[in-house]
Write a structure and sequence with these properties.
This protein is an alpha+beta fold. The chain contains 12 helices and 48 strands. It folds into 5 domains: 22-141, Serine Threonine Protein Phosphatase 5, Tetratricopeptide repeat; 147-413, Neuraminidase (6 Propeller), CATH 2.120.10.30; 419-519, Immunoglobulin-like, CATH 2.60.40; 534-623, Immunoglobulin-like, CATH 2.60.40; 631-765, 60s Ribosomal Protein L30, Chain: A, CATH 3.30.1330.60. 22% of the residues lie in helices and 35% in strands. Strand 4 (186-187) and strand 5 (192-193) form a beta hairpin.
Length: 767
């Protein structure tokens, strides 16, 4: 190797070592600023490190964290995206990345990151909370907004202005604005002037803000404040700047002062201040006996918690935490108390992102805090609320569209139009009409909403203006169907209580009344309806069952082709009719005729009974009873002769139960009375009675509960004069559900569980 080559390699090694050494020095300096929470300075040096080493995990994570602490969520998002790629084993990157995305109104993307965090930390309170909050935000978005907000003019600046309260003829608030030599000092974390207390007089509009009091504004941070209802005592947060080395932390503390003449005097530290933890954001109650504040003292839930101290004479009692319903492992800050209601901000409850404002009632023992929702809350920090009266006030936020980092906003509550809801049931010739589109129209015949009836013919419209007249129209072209349909108003249990007024074919009118009104009405009598009905299940397909996914409408028609029932095939082509009269032959039609489509009829367990024969006119014929079957001839309640196969289930509007109950309630008794009537008219038949439960509870418990239900049903029927020998009763526990007990996302399905808590009947021949 020549001398020239050796010298060149040596030069390269020196350069590489020099670059590495320089990068290491930059990182060390950045980390020093980072530990002191001087994030602006830290970012400068982390940027230099990443210029030379783009994959440095420590620098990437820390610069992302610094941007997030400075509430620069755009840059934080960029660096957390890189951090999750560079170091996927650090699970907090996914949590912080999700929170940053949520701060940037990217809720769907945020949820994906939170779910990755929870996968790595399945017991994390914060992870589960963040996932929940993403769902809550989607629900809140569709709700009507009860407040109007606006940025307060002539108050806000490019720096932070926040925590306003009304005082005399203006407002007092906290601001970072630098207006004198004292406030030209800069706070290391954000490189902004220190906080001071200001006052702005209000005439027609707010005039230029001035320092509130030279006695209260110190050399460091002052505010926010609270003033007693008599105006004579002020409570405020202050940070004293004490130089005691890098390891020393200047804590937030509460002070009070008394008004003498026009000056605030006798500045006194709160008795529960400490150099070991912060005590901040005081709010004094109207009677002057309760002081609410935020603190990170030991024994709390984590972060800052809300405490209250009670005044006894001239002494303040030991602070008491408001408990786990208010306080969380994160931060609860900026308490405000009015009319027994505490308002506070938190990033530890389900919210939009950053700090959200919540309310909680003292009369409820500080239970169940409520998110005040948009527009008071946003994806950024929202805090420092104050009510001028019962319907208006101020709050602070660093949301998009403001003038500075934190701005003061005014809000006004406006009365929402009282609303109600209605539920109904659509039937055609006494059969539930499933999958039928219903339009809701206003008084000017404008369609305002549309829905589709479920498998039981039921539908619902909510958020209707109370006492307003509406029109319902069936979206169909079949004149016989439109003319023969009836629409019933139902109560909260889904029971028919009122026949809607018919305007014409497929058109009905109703007035939006309080929902409680329908619960107070008597149930409609159904003596004219047959009690004895059959369920028919089927599937359409082209070559093999399951290959068709058109979700087509299937009709039951009479010999003349009139539609007497409708159902919609699901994604696998399956359909069912729940309450058909027990005819021996049925004719089916498809809404869109296709000669290539086949149809099979199955039982309730999916076993194929036979193929429905396609006729030349496009109808499909199914003969329910064939010559080979053992047939039972019955007399129904109106003395018609009907035939069913042995072991065929029939429906008498299944008996349903309350959760964990075996008692025969009023509705169940009504259904069992129908069974009694059938048994009395048919001396040679008996009934197999099967009872079932939902999936809550253990297997043994559910089996015992279902048997209790079966026995109770038997006792009731026997009490009506039926021989016990005609009834066989058995409980099946949770083993034969007819509906999912849980939704596809794993959440509870109350409607499905209610359907599974049932008793069914099967006719048998007596020997």
């Amino acid at each position: 190797m020549t001398q020239r080559v050796v010298r060149r390699i040596g030069i390269i090694l020196v350069v590489v070592f020099s670059i590495h050494s320089d990068s290491f020095a930059q990182l060390k300096k950045a980390n020093s600023y980072f530990k002191q929470e001087q994030f602006n300075d830290a970012i400068k040096y982390y940027s230099k490190v990443l210029k030379k080493d783009v994959s440095n995990a420590e620098a990437t994570q820390n610069i992302a964290f610094a941007y997030r602490k400075l509430k620069d969520y755009s840059n934080a998002e960029v660096y957390y995206a890189k951090a999750t790629e560079i170091n996927p084993d650090e699970s907090t990157n996914f949590l912080y990345y999700g929170q940053t995305l949520k701060n940037n109104n990217k809720v769907r993307e945020a949820k994906a990151q939170f779910e990755k965090f929870v996968a790595k930390n399945p017991n994390s309170f914060m992870g589960k909370l963040m996932v929940q909050s993403c769902g809550d935000i989607r629900d809140w978005e569709v709700e009507d907004k009860a407040y109007e907000i606006s940025n307060v003019e002539n108050i806000n600046t490019k720096n932070a202005d926040f925590c306003p309260l009304v005082y005399e003829d203006g407002i007092v608030f906290v601001s970072e604005r630098g207006v004198d030599l004292v406030n030209e000092n800069h706070y290391g974390m954000s490189n902004k002037p220190y906080l001071s207390i200001f006052f702005a007089k209000q005439d027609k509009q707010y005039k230029k803000a001035k320092r509130f009091s030279s006695q209260l504004n110190s050399l460091y941070h002052d505010g926010p404040i609270s003033i007693s209802s008599d105006g004579k005592t002020i409570y405020f947060t202050r940070v004293d700047k004490i130089e005691q080395g890098k390891a020393y932390t200047n804590r937030l503390k509460i002070y009070s002062a008394n008004l003498e003449g026009k000056k605030w005097k006798n500045v006194t530290p709160f008795t529960h201040n400490s150099s070991s933890y912060s005590v901040a954001h005081p709010w004094i109650s109207e009677d002057g006996k309760q002081l609410f504040f935020a603190s990170d003292m030991q024994g709390g839930q984590g972060g800052m918690d809300i405490y209250v101290s009670t005044k006894n004479g001239e002494e303040w009692s030991k602070p008491v935490s408001l408990g786990k319903d208010v306080n969380t492992p994160e931060n609860e800050v900026f308490p405000y108390y009015k009319n027994k209601v505490l308002y506070f901000s938190s990033d530890g409850h389900s919210g939009y992102g950053g700090l959200d404002i919540y309310s909680v009632n003292q009369l409820d023992k500080w239970k169940n805090p409520v998110n005040l929702k948009a527009p008071l809350n946003s994806s950024k920090d929202d805090f420092g609320i104050f009510y001028k009266d019962d319907e208006s006030g101020y709050f602070s936020s660093n949301r998009e569209g403001g003038l500075g980092s934190d701005d003061i906003y005014s809000f006004t509550w406006h009365t929402l139009t009282p609303q109600t809801e209605m539920s109904g049931l659509l039937e055609y010739e006494k059969l539930a009409s499933a999958g039928t589109t219903i339009n809701l129209l206003d008084e000017n015949d404008n369609i305002v909403r549309t829905t589709v009836t479920d498998e039981y013919g039921k539908f619902k419209f909510d958020k209707l203006d109370l006492d307003k007249n509406y029109l319902l129209s069936i979206d169909a072209t079949d004149d016989s169907f439109l003319g023969g349909s009836n629409l019933f108003m139902t109560n909260s249990k889904g029971e028919k209580v009122l026949l809607a007024n018919k305007l014409g074919k497929g058109k009905f009118t109703f007035q939006a009344l309080p929902y409680e009104y329908y619960d107070g009405l008597e149930l409609l009598k159904e003596e004219d309806e047959s009690l004895f009905t059959i369920s028919v299940f089927g599937q359409i397909y082209k070559k093999l069952p399951g290959d068709y996914s058109g979700e087509m409408e299937v009709w039951v028609v009479d010999d003349e082709g009139n539609v007497i029932g409708k159902a919609t095939a699901d994604k696998d082509g399956k359909f069912s009719f729940d309450k058909l009269s027990p005819d021996e032959q049925y004719l089916f039609m498809l809404a869109e005729d296709d000669a290539l489509l086949n149809m099979i009829i199955v039982d309730e367990n999916g076993n194929v009974l036979e193929a429905a024969k396609r006729l030349i006119d496009g109808k499909y014929r199914y003969v329910r009873l064939d010559a080979e079957q053992n047939v039972i001839t019955l007399i129904n309640e109106i003395d018609e002769v009907i035939k069913i196969a042995e072991n065929e289930n029939f429906i008498i509007s299944k008996v349903l139960y309350e959760y964990r109950s075996a008692e025969i309630n009023e509705t169940a008794a009504k259904e069992l009375n129908k069974l009694v009537l059938i048994l009395k008219k048919n001396k040679d038949i008996g009934v197999e009675l099967s009872s079932h439960t939902d999936s809550k509870g253990g297997d043994k418990y559910n089996m015992e509960l279902s048997q209790k239900r079966a026995n109770k049903a038997v006792e009731y029927v026997v009490s009506k004069g039926i021989n016990a020998a005609k009834i066989v009763a058995k409980g099946f526990g949770e083993t034969q559900p007819v509906a999912p007990n849980e939704l596809p996302n794993g959440k509870d399905n109350p409607e499905g569980r209610a359907k599974n808590r049932r008793t069914e009947f099967k006719v048998i021949k007596l020997k």
